[in-house]
Write a structure and sequence with these properties.
Blueprint (H helix, E strand, L loop, with lengths): L4 H12 L9 H17 L4 H15 L10 H16 L15 E7 L5 H14 L4 E6 L4 H14 L3 E2 L7 H14 L4 E6 L7 H14 L3 E7 L4 H14 L3 E5 L8 H10 L3 E5 L7 E3 L2 H9 L1
Parallel strand pairs: 1-4, 1-5, 2-3, 2-4, 5-6, 6-7
Antiparallel strand pairs: 7-8
The structure holds guanosine-5'-diphosphate (GDP).
Keywords: GTP-binding, Hydrolase, Nucleotide-binding, Ribonucleoprotein, RNA-binding, Signal recognition particle
GO molecular function: 7S RNA binding; GTP binding; GTPase activity
Protein name: signal-recognition-particle GTPase
Length: 297
């Protein structure tokens, strides 16, 4: 719970104020609701999301008394838990696979978010699911990124398709897909160029790559440390190129939780996977109920 430490204790102070209360009323939940609101805002959850959340929890809470031996304050914990799960998309959102031929997963993201690491982690994860993978190096701006991918591919034991930097990313991706078809590889993971910030070149290039390989998944890699900014990025990329979901990295850091809580509600797109460390095995599906459990401590 160290990750959401502050959020957890902020929420706790809300229920602690309702100890010994017989029934939750508009009056006695007012201050606890302010605690919840403050805790969420401090965790960098976006304001409209916080407003809707508190509104919904309040509506469900008013009138709640002792039910089958469960105290009202304990029931508020349950209401908040369920509302957190809903906020994060409810069910786990599995990766989709193509019905026939290789599944193409296109990865996008700003520089430094952990995109290259995610390529390798994802290949490792898919290998464990029994799927063969091909990594495609379509970041033509940084030769070092290609080298990094080749090294990671060796570590995972997955082939890496490269064509240098003198050819368009959409062509590299297309040729990579052809290679995968020839070798009957299950999943093609395309690594694209990251930039320090969004610009037209990046978006146009992504659109071109997407058009060239018709990916089943277009996943935006975002850094949990950036809080609600991550949710804003997911929204922008979705509007610009159309994405299927997000991968949230660096959840092992002292992230305050805002990204995990805002992405689905703000962008309409689910978080599909989370990275919680630098090792290859540190990538796992995003389970809203487990995350809610961790937040509640
Ligand atoms: P890229 O520029 O998006 O390709 O980023 P990289 O994959 O090169 O990662 C940037 C840095 O973040 C590297 O030092 C990674 O080891 C680190 N990193 C990536 N994912 C995670 C993660 O989930 N947790 C932690 N703690 N570090 C990560």
């Amino acid at each position: 719970a160290e990750m959401f430490g502050q959020l957890t204790s902020g929420l706790e102070s809300a229920w602690n104020k309702l100890r010994g209360v017989d029934v939750l009323t508009k009056e006695n939940i007012a201050e606890p609701m302010r605690d919840i609101r403050r805790a969420l805002l401090e965790a960098d959850v976006s304001l409209p999301v916080v407003r809707r959340f508190v509104q919904s929890v309040s509506e469900q809470a008013v009138g709640v008394g002792l039910i089958r031996g469960v105290r009202p304050d304990q029931q508020l914990v349950k209401i908040v838990h369920d509302e957190l799960v809903t906020l994060m998309g409810g069910e786990v959102s599995d990766l989709a696979f193509a019905k026939s031929g290789p599944t193409v997963i296109l990865l996008a993201g700003l520089q430094g978010v952990g995109k290259t690491t995610v390529c390798a982690k994802l290949a490792f994860y898919l290998k464990k699911l029994g799927k063969s993978c091909l990594l495609v190096a379509a970041d033509v701006y940084r030769p070092a990124a290609i080298d990094q991918l080749v090294i990671l591919g060796e570590q995972v034991g997955v082939p890496v398709y490269t064509e240098g930097t003198d050819i368009k990313p959409s062509q590299i991706a297309k040729h990579g897909l052809e290679e995968a078809k020839k070798k009957t590889i299950d999943v093609v993971i395309v690594d694209t160029a990251g930039r320090l910030q969004i610009d037209k070149t990046m978006m146009d290039e992504l659109k071109e790559v997407k058009q060239a390989v018709n990916p089943t998944e277009v996943l935006l890699v975002v850094d949990a440390m950036t809080g609600q900014e991550a949710a804003a990025l997911v929204t922008t990329f979705n509007i610009e190129i159309g994405i299927t979901g997000a991968i949230l990295t660096k959840l092992d850091g002292d992230s305050r939780g805002g990204a995990a809580l805002s992405v689905k509600e703000v962008s309409g797109k689910p978080i599909k996977l989370v990275g919680r460390g630098e090792r290859l095995e540190d990538l796992e599906p995003f389970y809203p109920d487990r995350m809610a459990g961790r937040i509640l401590g």
